[in-house]
Write a structure and sequence with these properties.
- The chain is of the alpha/beta class.
- It has 8 helices and 12 strands.
- Helix 3 runs parallel beside helix 4, helix 6 crosses helix 7 and helix 6 crosses helix 8.
- The chain is elongated and about 60 Å long.
- The chain starts with a strand and ends in a 6-residue tail after the last strand.
Length: 228
């Protein structure tokens, strides 16, 4: 079960976020500001942090910078009423992974939490194998019986997502959200282009095939033959 640290000085919002997360199977850990958040972190394993920006003692930007400087790598989702580009830039420069502007749709908050956790899990599993192929996150390299290939970041994470769950069908929306992010303005055709590049790159590989599931999305299967 994932532990989500909820940092919010407004008690009603804090309790609402915690209740919604609990209803979706997460274990929420409440904190009223950045200082209290570090107190929670000392005694609990936290998988993700949801934090307000405007808080007393230590605000969300300061907390995020302090987290990254201290070596914490869990995803951070900042929530704020400040929606200017400058504020968002400050948040991302501080080290946040995602950003939401109040008023908050709690269903969207849960979707973003799910996407951030999936991407975090992908990054934490540094390597995976598929048949005789090995995918290495640290170098963005795929090693097959035919040799090694270094991919672009998006190509690698796309293939890694599929390869980490062989035979599982991923919808186009799931792939776009996890690889490009839920706020990405990338054209959905971009996914098709990346799939085509991967198929061309590994068309002679005996280790796996990328399969189109019509009307649904894509999956990777182990086996010989050309990807299709």
């Amino acid at each position: 079960m994932f532990h989500i640290l909820v940092v919010e000085d407004d008690r009603d919002l804090r309790e609402l976020f915690c209740a919604v997360l609990s209803d979706h199977g997460y274990t929420p850990l409440p904190a009223e500001d950045g200082i209290s958040a570090f107190d929670v972190l000392e005694g609990a394993d936290v998988d993700l942090i949801i934090s307000d920006v405007m808080m007393p003692r230590m605000d969300g930007f300061e907390m995020t910078r302090a987290l990254r400087e201290a070596g914490y790598t869990m995803p951070v989702l900042l929530i704020t009423a400040r929606e200017s580009a400058a504020d968002k830039r400050e948040g991302f420069r501080a080290g946040t992974d995602d950003y939401m502007v109040k008023p908050i749709d709690v269903n969207e908050m849960v979707w973003r939490v799910e996407a951030l956790l999936r991407r975090s899990q992908m990054a934490s599993r540094r390597r995976t194998k598929l048949g005789g192929a090995e995918l290495d996150c640290d170098t963005l390299t795929v090693r097959t019986q035919a040799g090694s290939a270094e991919l672009t970041q998006k190509e690698f994470y796309l293939l890694y997502k599929l390869a980490a769950s062989p035979n599982r069908i991923f919808t186009r929306r799931q792939i776009m959200d996890d690889v490009w992010g839920p706020d990405s303005e990338a054209d959905p055709h971009t996914l098709d282009v990346h799939i085509s590049r991967l198929r061309e790159r590994f068309k002679d590989s005996p280790d796996f095939r990328i399969v189109t599931v019509r009307g649904l999305g894509y999956k990777v299967v182990e086996g010989d033959g050309y990807a299709r």
